[in-house]
Amino acid sequence: MTSSDRSQAVGEAKTYEPKTYEVRTYGCQMNVHDSERLSGLLEGAGYVRAPEGSDGDADVVVFNTCAVRENADNKLYGNLGRLAPMKTRRPGMQIAVGGCLAQKDRDTIVSRAPWVDVVFGTHNIGKLPVLLERARVQEEAQIEIAESLEAFPSTLPTRRESAYAAWVSISVGCNNTCTFCIVPALRGKEKDRRPGDILAEIEALVAEGVSEITLLGQNVNAYGSDIGDREAFSKLLRACGTIGGLERVRFTSPHPRDFTDDVIAAMAETPNVMPQLHMPLQSGSDTVLRAMRRSYRQERFLGIIEKVRAAIPHAAISTDIIVGFPGETEEDFEQTMHVVREARFAQAFTFQYSKRPGTPAAEMDGQIPKAVVQARYERLVALQEEISWSENKRQVGRTLEVMVAEGEGRKDDTTHRLSGRAPDNRLVHFTKPAEEVRPGDVVTVEITYAAPHHLLAEGPTTAVRRTRAGDAWEKRNAAGAAKPQGVLLGLPKIGVPAPLPPVAGGCTVA
User: What residue range is the signal peptide (predicted)?
Assistant: First the structure.
């Protein structure tokens, strides 16, 4: 090869475009956390994120699925069906399916959608790049479902969605046996991380500019059961209070059974633990709670709320409620309405019960007619809307420190406002100040108006505090403007593949 030939070859290599990826996430915060790791793994393997709005027009499309939400499988196969013709037109494109539905359905996915290249489970997300490469080389689908956890999600490479806030996984799995939930079967038994590993990760995140972390677990306040320390979670909260630069600590989701007084004390006495609590109720009826296998009763639940309010007067408490669980009577439902009135939740995530294949509740007698469930659901939502609005009105006149957020206010451009979160996690829209404010920075505002789901601060901003978190956001945006270099990941197969079969059942519903 001559010198000019070598120069030409080098020039051609420089123009090679990197492969792009897109991750689509469904379900809970744990899945969001896992998807950040999937993105980090792919970028570590040389892929670059596809532009916003690509809608499947990427070299690799990953579905991180949920098996808890209603019609999760129909939604997945509908989306896979829409990608089939795109894959036919795009040689070398790969599709991967992971998450809870993949853990549950395994071989079913490839049989119903043969154009899927990789299926992986909840326990081995770290294998995704290897499985993609193996599928490309061997030209056949790779299905690998681990039965136990291979690595905590937080120990894997990450591409965090936020420069100023981060999830930190403290445990995975769940030891509860709620009859409506399939998560323990898919995520496994609870396994706790060592406290030192958790705190080391938090310190590393703070060093990068993160100022808010959310401790994450399927049953977060049961932390310690795996290591034999019932007060491990409260100790962890207090330890977070000693980390300089960490301004806000949150956690989700706890379980009333494991919510002990030492946790309430730690929340009240640790300044950077925010006055916010998400405490799932599910039902206010002791009879229904027993059928759900929820190991607490109405009195215990309301007792926790009372203690939290006594220790943290301004705490905003939210909850989850299921309406229409099998066997729920009108009297049972009224008990739920009673708890909602007594607890005065700032917010409630309300769900109509629907069967989840593989759960004991799906086989229970006394399934409630859809019309009855709908009517109860509407009554509950109306009551909670009234309470949320009333509780938000109590915030009018208060002066709050709001951490500026990115993408929280859909109308910010037209209203000339910015948006952020108060310490209790309430959404606040505020008048845009004259000086530059970045996501991660903190503003001080006075609340002037309340709506059921947000607060307004229509007056001038009292103070603006530029933060290291804002610096991190600015640095990330500057880095994102630079064009990524091409990385050779193997040439795709030449030629158009054979036409793909239709989706089994013909479902194309999103």
Answer: none
φ/ψ of 192, rounded to 5, equals: -95, 145
108: tokens are 């079913």
Q: Is 100 annotated as a binding residue?
A: yes
Burial degree of 51 (CB within 10 A; 0-12, 13-18, 19+): exposed
Distance, in Å, from the CA atom of 457 to the CA atom of 436, rounded to the nearest integer, reads: 17
348 vs 65 pLDDT, higher one: 348
Residues facing 282 on adjacent strands: 321
* Cα–Cα distance for residue pair 397/328, rounded to 1 Å: 42
Q: What CA–CA distance (Å, rounded) separates 332 from 344?
A: 19
- Tell me: is residue 240 an annotated ligand-binding position: no
Q: How far apart are CA 301 and CA 309, in angstroms?
A: 13
178 in a known ligand binding site = yes
* CA atoms in the 13 A half-sphere facing the CB of 255: 19
Q: What whole-number distance in Å separates Cα of residue 132 and Cα of residue 451?
A: 47
Looking at residue 54, its amino acid is S
For residue range 395-448, what is the model confidence (pLDDT) as tens digits?
999 999 999 998 887 787 788 899 999 999 999 999 999 999 999 999 999 999
Would the pTM count as exceeding 0.90? Answer: no
Among residues 362, 300, 297, which one has the least CA distance to residue 332? 297
Q: How far apart are CA 158 and CA 156, in angstroms?
A: 6
* Residues 454/424, Cβ–Cβ less than 8 Å: no
Dist. CA 400–CA 4, nearest whole Å: 66
The alpha-carbon radius of gyration of the chain (Å, integer) is 25
Q: Which residues pair with 213 in a beta bridge?
A: 166, 249
- Does residue 181 have a known ligand-binding role? yes
Q: Annotation-wise, does 66 bind a ligand? A: yes
* Rounded Cα gap, residues 302 and 97, in angstroms: 41
174 appears as a binding residue in the annotation: yes
Q: How many CB atoms lie within 10 A of CB 493?
A: 11
For 347, which DSSP code? E
pLDDT in tens, 256-287: 999 999 999 999 999 999 999 999 999 999 99
CA distance 276 to 12: 56
Q: Angle at CA 52, nearest 5°, toward 47 and 55?
A: 85
CA atoms within 13 A on the CB side of 160: 19
